[in-house]
Amino acid sequence: MWRCGMGTEMLKHWPRYTLSAIAIFLASAAHACPSDKVINDYLTAFRQAKPAAGFGENLDMASALCAQQKVVSALTSDFGAVVGYKAAFTSKASQERFQIDGPLIGFMFKNGMRPDGSKVAVDYGARPMMEADLIAVVKSADIQKATTAQEALNHIESFVPFIELVDLALDTNVKMDAPTIVAINVAHRGGVLGKPVKIEDARAMFAALPQLTIVTRNADGVEMARDRGESMLGNPANIILFLAQDLSRRGIKLKAGDMLSLGSFPGPQAIKAGTNVTVAYEGLPGNPSVNVTFE
Fold it and tell me: Which segments constitute the Fumarylacetoacetase-like C-terminal domain (predicted)?
């Protein structure tokens, strides 16, 4: 999520965050949490699919990570267990725009996942959007021992076409800077899953991923968006490695079956009632696709 296509005004002088700094912030986040009232007000609005007031002015990354932890913990009672993790800011352009040094992470919930061909209410969120995405399904916990993108891909069972159901969640007057996006769990509300594509030859797949073409079309076959795998830090496998390593730094252990969402192609897209959308993955075996109708 959040590539170069975001149109919201960004803070121009936000301090840059390194991955190591974020890890330190996470460890110290308990000392910088927004108040329980602020968290509860956000959760109430999110559950009602109404725009929330946000987490206050000048939210820093330490506070944002703590807010995310509390929000995710609370939402498991509504959306079920965490079944995967999503990467945001997966292009260099988006990282430069938000002044961060690498992707950031969100958490995905079991009950938010829907099957291919689902019909989804257009007002499922306060500020709903969709993203053409791609999920990698973990084959082995040994993925967190990987030191290269190829090694990480060796521990992936399959790829799954994925349309993420995004919710920007906040009032339009709230600045959507990097900490704010982290606090709202990187805007995740759910998604639509296609059929898994098993990886038979990880080395050949690694070579093919940069040329993968992801095309979003409406019911009339009109192209709405197009992107390539190489836009994901050169190769989507690099995002897999990042997620495996960053989650390990956080003390989160991956297991077989966990889902890793690799980011949007090319960014969030507006939705409207009566729209049928298909995302095709040209270059994956069988050229699979995933479909959703917004009602």
Answer: 99-284
CA–CA distance from 176 to each of 30, 103, 106 (Å)? 23, 16, 15
Q: What is the DSSP letter of 173?
A: T
Question: Shortest CA distance to 264 belongs to which of 214, 222, 196?
Answer: 214
DSSP characters for 220-278?
T--EEEEEEGGGTTTSHHHHHHHHHHHHHHTTPPP-TT-EEE---SS--EE--TTEEEE
User: At residue 247, does pLDDT exceed 60?
Assistant: yes
Task: Look at domain 19-294 and name its CATH class.
Answer: alpha beta
pLDDT higher than threshold 60 for residue 109:
yes
Q: What is the spatial distance between Cα 130 and Cα 270, in angstroms, rounded to a whole number?
A: 7
* CA–CA separation, 157 and 141 (whole Å): 12
Q: Which amino acid is at 12?
A: K
Using CA atoms, how far apart are residues 241 and 261, in angstroms rounded to an integer?
12
Rg of the Cα trace of the chain?
18
Q: Using the structure block, give the residue that is written with the tokens 């994956």.
A: 284
DSSP state, 35? P
Answer for the pair 235, 208: CB distance below 8 angstroms, yes or no: no
Residue 285 token pair: 């075996």
Strands (E), the chain: 82-88, 104-109, 113-115, 118-120, 128-138, 156-167, 188-193, 197-198, 213-218, 223-228, 259-261, 269-270, 275-282, 289-294
- Which residues is 294 bridged to in the sheet? 120, 275
**Residues, the chain:** 295
Query: Cα–Cα distances in Å, from 198 out to 14, 128, 195?
Result: 41, 31, 10
Is this structure's pTM higher than 0.90?
no
Give the start-to-end residue ranges of the domains of the chain: 19-294
Contact present, 130 and 152 (Cβ < 8 Å):
no
